Amino acid sequence: MVLLGWLIFWFALLFSIGLHELGHLATAKKFGMKATKYFVGMGPAVWSFRRGETEYGIAAFPIGGYVKIIGMTALETVAPEDEPRALRSKPAWQRVIVLAAGSFMHFVLAFILLFAVAAGIGIENDNSTQLGTVSACVPASVNALNNNAPCTASSVKSPASLAGLKPGDKVTSFDGVRVTNYTELTTAIKKVKAGATVPVTVQRDGQTLTLRATLASVPGRAGGFLGISGAMVFQPDSPLSAAGFAGSTFGQVVTGWVKVMGQLPAAVPHLFAKDRASTSAGNLSSVVGDANDTGQALALHVSWQSKVGFVLLLIAELNIVVGIFNLLPLLPLDGGHIFAVVLERIRSRWARWRHRPDPGLFDVTKLLPVSLSLFAVLVVLGVTLILADIVNPVNIG
Questions:
Q1: Distance between CA atoms of 208 and 172, rounded to whole angstroms?
Q2: Spatial separation of the C-alpha atoms in residues 388 and 268, rounded to whole Å
Q3: Residue range 28-74, pLDDT digits in tens
Q4: CA angle, corner 187, sides to 183 and 193, nearest 5?
Q5: Contact in structure between 35 and 54 (CB atoms under 8 Å)
Q6: β-pairing, 233-235 with 131-134?
Q7: 195-227, pLDDT tens digit by residue?
Q8: Could you tell me whether strands 123-125 and 177-178 are parallel, antiparallel, or unpaired per DSSP bridges?
Q9: Which listed residue (21, 81, 83, 317) is catalytic?
Q10: Which helix (H) or strand (E) holds 63?
Q11: Is 344 among the catalytic positions?
Q12: For residue 109, which of 18, 229, 176 has the smallest C-alpha distance?
């Protein structure tokens, strides 16, 4: 299942990359630009075909993709007959649309995935009185309880197990107190002292049963112990509510990413720490970490809704982050080229205001020293993060 998770994640990543490049290709062709290549992957081609003036294919290394649009910069040599179809010859607004189309496709895909989770699978609701698990034994300590320590030969059976409670039972009352959600149920349990025997009314297979449970005690923990946990209930949303969920979650991912970037300097030193998961470095992840999380999620003993929902949310978050990252004003990212177009238009307006000739295309080589220096820092950080995810991964539990 872990291997399957890795394969699913990498397939989703390559699909996202292909969609990103398709955004560039479709808008470029819409505006009459000449696109000569569309490839998923980098390096030498392993398979390709030509349709019209464009070669479509898959490259050897699944680490990216690209679309070749002629005339991306002022320095590129373009045949005179093709110059009118070069990207640089088109109006600024068309160039910006083409350059931003890749990130836009990431955002669209993320919104669709978030919508699908809410409308198709449903949002997890853990406040139901339906039982998800019934403990087999009484934990030996609070620490054993918090860490889900396995039962031993000397362990005492849990009150819930002795009473005959089963996963799927829906508790309607506890000790004569009617309960409608899991919070009310846990509150009612805490009010009962260890050793007391109380009635527990449940609904099972359409029947109402009243069972009796004698609560146990866990050393170091106040109140009685029953030995149950609530089930995750999935409630699909209406299309309107699902759209609202997608929009709000999208915003949360964006603000969360900004917050993580602000914590980056403090988080990096903890990437290889033993307690990484409990530090700010636990919020940082590379594609290797995300692939590992996908594999772990599929290997967990939880419902299929939890697994599929987690994977779709993870892929949606990845697309949002990649879309934002790609818009950073650094070359060779699309955001760096967009920044160059913006600077070009500012220079043009300034020249017009001063009644001077239009200076023309902006020379992107002027941005290269700073852009490539900052981009190199991001690459080093990315490689460091990948190494940390390999030798010191964060376990999602």
A1: 9
A2: 10
A3: 999 999 999 999 998 999 999 999 999 999 999 888 899 999 998 88
A4: 150
A5: yes
A6: unpaired
A7: 999 999 999 999 999 999 999 988 877 788 998
A8: unpaired
A9: 21
A10: strand 54-69
A11: no
A12: 18
